[in-house]
Specification:
Layout: E1 3-8, H1 18-26, E2 32-34, H2 43-57, E3 62-66, E4 71-73, H3 77-87, E5 93-96, H4 108-115, E6 125-132, H5 133-149, H6 155-158, H7 161-170, E7 176-179, E8 185-187, E9 196-197, E10 200-201, E11 209-211
Parallel strand pairs: 1-2, 1-3, 5-7, 8-11
Antiparallel strand pairs: 3-6, 4-11, 5-6, 9-10
Helix pairs in contact: 2-5, 5-7
Length: 225
Amino acid sequence: MGIVVVSACFYKSTSKVERFKKSCREHSIKPVLYGVRERFRGFVHAKIKRLQMVLKKLKEDYVVFIDCADAVFLGGLDELWEAYCELSPERKIVISGDKRCWPHRKYARRLKKRNGPDSTQPYICAGFFMGPRLELIKALSVLVDLYKNNHKLGSKLKEDDQGYWMEAVCTCKIDADIDAHGSLCLSMAHQPDDIIKGGVMSTGVKPVIIHYNGLSKHLIGHHNG
């Protein structure tokens, strides 16, 4: 069984993601960074269509996708795999949770009920997901179909890859578990400032990845890992 970390890196060079690369080296991870020196054509193209092309060329059984611009590893792939199997014994697709329900607020109550009142990030963040490579390829096809059929959305929402993941998971078009407690990947946006200290969350959970998404992006500059 093989596992590979993949990330979209649509920059002129990988120097923009040096902090992510450093955390990978520290944990003996060799990420596949695609899109370098390619023109950025929007999130749907970068994180759905182009990603699917990359996955079709890989041979590993399992894939981890993470936003490399604002994420760091706190642990290695063995720790990530252990947390993944504990969260999803059936080894389904797992997508990161989030503190805020965006962009489809209509699913907020459903997700909150699904993940329980004690979940620290009950909603969905498309900045991290992992699972069987072949299942992810199928899931990305579902997202492409949703994109093609979603003519009523405004231009901003139509390019929001997270919206398609949310719709697909909440309408059971994609069978996925949500990392609602941050055991795989902690999404920092809208979290309390003291949510994590010394690599351990205030709930006692030790995430393998920290994703400084949304309004928390500036905090990655203070990360000492």
